[in-house]
Amino acid sequence: MWETLRKHASLRLRSKVLQYFVKIEGKDNGQDWEKMIRQLFFVFLFIHSTLAKKEPAVKATDKKWLTLNGGSPAVIARGGFSGLFPESSQFAYESASQTGLPDLIMFCDLQFTREQLAVCQSDIRLDNSTLIADVFPKGQKTYNVNGQDVKGWFAMDRTIDELKMNVTLKQNILSRPSVFDGIFGMFTPDDIVLPKNEGDPKPNVSLWVNVEYDMFYNQHKMSAANYIENSAGWWVPNYISSPEIGFLKAMGSRKNKSIKLIFRFLSKDAVEPTTKEKYGAILGKLSTIKSFASGILVPKEYIWPVSKDFYLESATTLVADAHKAGLEVYASGFANDAIMAYNYSYDPAAEYLNFIDNGQFSVDGLLTDFPPTASEAVACLAQNQNATKVMKSLIISHNGASGDYPGSTDLAYQKAIDDGADIIDCSVQLSKDGVAFCLETADLTGKTTAVTTLVDRASTVPEIQPNSGIFSFDLTWSEIQTLKPQLVSPFSNSSLLRNPANKNKGKFVTLSEFLELAKTKATTGILINLDNAPYLASKKGFDVIKIVRDALTNATFEKQSTQKVLIQSEDSSVLSAFKDSPTYQRVLKIENLISDAPKKVAADVKKYADAIHIRRGSIVSENAGFFATGFTKVTQEMHAANISVYVSTLANEFVSLLFDYFSDPYSELATLAAQNVDGFITDHPASAHAYMRSPCSNPDAKLPFSISPVKPGALLGLVDPEAMPPALPPVPALEEADLVDPPLPATANISSSNPPSNSTPTPATAPSPKSSSSVNNVASACRSVLAVMLLGLLYN
Predict the structure, then answer these.
(1) Which residue ranges does the record annotate as region Disordered (predicted)?
(2) What SS3 state is found at 629?
(3) Helix (H) or strand (E) holding 356
(4) Phi/psi of residue 476, nearest 5 degrees
């Protein structure tokens, strides 16, 4: 059986097979063999189907860079793809190679074993990123490391065989998936760069080794310099870095001339072991550094400082100064799921671009836990700001650019337009005195400051929502204008705040002002969302459909075809009221998740609408562990009925993204685009526009790098069945009963001076926001909580 598996498994999976073989050899355990075969199959699928890049048929257009040598910035994978798999594991390196640029550099932090061989791990304490404590429970020791007592499990207390044959890796960032813990063994530089079988060609891999603790190892009669020199017969690293000047100077006389020596800066207050100077002081001695190194590796804050309240400060002159001294500059500390400056709107690619494409300077390389995102920034997004959209799909704002400003305000709409939105949207609400304005819901408690000043006006309206609220139709327009809009995170209990500096900026916009803005700015179109029409007509005496019709007519949208007009509602009767306006596109909003749209039901949708608005989960299904499990056929079924499909709500925050998307909103965009959706409804139009104007969004372009859609199930195939996240309750198919709403009631004749209300006053307590009826909202909220509860501990 072993020989059969060895012959048929990919050579790059040999260590995986060996790991299982060692564990189960000599045992009559069919379940273990079955598990091994199953995982090997999905490993093969993951590499060769999910992540494998096509060989480029043409070379990408050369770009001019502001790096030291004028070449493109390097992408360096810290421990491989450590943002997904356990750091420095086989699959961290394998997946980095498959998802990153062709010239990706693999980064290995060297830790030395008892016989002075090396494994790749960033922390000198192996218990932080491996399961060594379970294997050797009595192996904990305390050593003095550069003046600090450090307690843990150390590589130098074990042989290379003890570590490779017994110790498996775990994810050491708790907001990242733990389902791959205990699967992969420890990796060495040999495993990264040497052929897996004798006679095989040597892999084309660039290697960067970092020696963080040379002085400590020297105290224990171990030499990193000797190890690297003795390995030269098998492999030679392209880069050697260290935060210790003494080590780099020693390597200068021994290294191969092709190797670049890089001085690594730690925090400015940390003390460099050789000179006993703080790194902040050494920073001013670039000409001295040039005498023993060809470059520097610095935390990204050395280049773009971030204030204590997480805003970018002015860039330093470090890159320009270092380039002037002849030193390359590499920036470290990049991770899609780390807290970043609010200026980036949680778009990780925007952060990379600020280091390589700001018009003033470019670093020479990016050290990252997420090599696919850094690669797409370099290959797809940089130097592309003035390009036109490649894709035809529409970018539709969600309450304007509500990821950056309070939703439905003048500033949110203006930013959406500036950021490339094709369609700006207005959910029409009415004040007590009949003024139509834009706000996501009639309940003002979530999106305004109403709860702080008008809590005594709270009431319960079961026709609209189960929870109490302060409703626009119970307040005059003058009262509403006394409130301030409020920027809030859509992720409950999340510490990922949206830009606090903009929390209450902007002003409310009337429907007529919204329409005038769209006309003045010549947007591709507008989307008007209508909720609560039956209640407003029967209980408040407002014909919201007539109000909207009149506003559109007065703004000359009724008889023009230059700008698209989309009328959206969950109520099919509302859409039917616009049937006699053929220039308007009617959009049926389906709030609950659906798994299927049978042909007959899709045909019924066509009676009411030209398009549907569905949630992401109606296209990509998921499990309770936030992994994609499959695609539905809803988009194809709707297209077969000549119905366009718009998907919502896209957001940049990593807690909103399935693990399959690599905490990268561009990966989700690419996946939904591959499903041929007709429009993206997003809180962050800038990110959608950056993707759509990128050549990498063109599936027919033959480029050296592309932003690939995910293949649901590929990652889950690597998971031990016993650790498999549970499935969510089944999602129903769309049914005819979901489409048919009662006819709209007649508009009640209610005196505007004293309109009756069926709303029930409630105690003066803060109302809760409206909640969705879909069970998948529970999973999304759970991920937000689990992912962000520990962020403060992880990154402080």
Answers:
(1) 742-775
(2) strand
(3) helix 348-356
(4) -75, 165
Q: What is the largest CA-CA distance in the chain?
A: 93
Structure letter (DSSP) for residue 209? E
Helix, strand, coil: what percent of the chain each, to 5? 35, 15, 50
Q: Scan for tokens 């421990």, then name that residue.
A: 79
Residue 164 phi/psi, 5-degree rounding, is -70, -30
Rounded CA-CA distance 102/80 in Å is: 14
Torsion of CA 527, 531, 536, 542, to 10 degrees: 10
- Using CA atoms, how far apart are residues 19 and 297, in angstroms rounded to an integer? 35
Q: Are strands 644-650 and 679-682 parallel, antiparallel or unpaired?
A: parallel
Distance (Å, rounded) from C-alpha 740 to C-alpha 664?
38
Which residues are CB-contacts of 174 (< 8 A; sequence separation ≥ 6)?
Answer: 790, 794
Tell me the two tokens of residue 753: 């001076």
Report d(CA 657, CA 780) in Å as an integer.
9
Q: Residue 509: helix, strand or coil by DSSP?
A: coil
Residue 142 burial (10 A CB sphere; 0-12, 13-18, 19+): exposed
User: Please, which residues have CB within 8 angstroms of residue 778's CB and are 6 or more apart in sequence?
Assistant: none
The mean per-residue pLDDT over the stretch 386-407 comes to 96
792 exposure class (CB count in 10 Å sphere: 0-12, 13-18, 19+) = exposed
Distance between CA 534 and CA 529 in Å, rounded?
A: 14
* ∠ CA 531-536-537, rounded to 5°: 120
pLDDT one-digit tens code per residue, 500-534: 999 999 999 999 999 999 999 999 999 999 999 99
| Contact criterion met (CB below 8 Å) for 81 and 106 | no
**Lookup: tokens for 428:** 């029409």
- Interatomic CA distance for residues 620 and 595, integer angstroms: 9
Interatomic CA distance for residues 175 and 786, integer angstroms: 7
DSSP assignment string, 402-457: TTTS-TTBHHHHHHHHHTT-SEEEEEEEE-TT--EEE-S-SB-TTTBSHHHH-GGG
Task: Return the SS3 of 178.
Answer: coil
Give the pair of three-digit tokens for residue 4. Answer: 């059969």
- Residue among 322, 321, 254 nearest 294 (CA): 322
**SS3 (DSSP) at 753:** coil
Distances (CA, A) of 90 to 15, 17, 371, 386: 8, 12, 15, 40
Q: How far is the C-alpha of 449 from the C-alpha of 467, rounded, in Å? A: 18
Give the chain's mean pLDDT: 88
Q: pLDDT band for 786, please (50, 70, 90 cuts).
A: very low
List the alpha helices (DSSP H) in 61-154: 90-99, 132-135
Q: What gap in Å lies between CA 398 and CA 412, rounded to an integer?
A: 10
What CA–CA distance (Å, rounded) separates 796 from 793?
6
Q: Residue 397's beta-bridge partner residues?
A: 682
Which residue, 380, 286, 279, 281, is CA-closest to 332?
Answer: 279
- Measured CA to CA, the distance from residue 121 to residue 105 in angstroms comes to 16
User: Three-class SS of residue 550?
Assistant: helix
Tokens 């195939």 belong to 717
334 φ, ψ (degrees, to nearest 5): -90, 130
Least Cα distance to 514 among 533, 530, 527 occurs for: 527
Q: Which residues fall within 8 angstroms of residue 410, CB to CB, at 6 or more apart?
A: 506, 507, 509, 513, 517
Count of all residues that appear for the chain in the document: 796
**725 CB-near residues (< 8 Å, 6+ apart):** 179, 623, 624, 625, 626, 627, 716, 719
Tens-place pLDDT, residues 419-464:
999 999 999 999 999 999 999 999 999 999 999 999 999 999 999 9
Name the β-bridge partners of 760.
Answer: 460
| Bridge partner list, 154 | 125
How far apart CA 778 and CA 771 sit, in angstroms, is 10
Would you tell me how many other CB atoms lie within 10 Å of the CB of residue 361?
Answer: 20
Tokens 């690293």 correspond to: 237
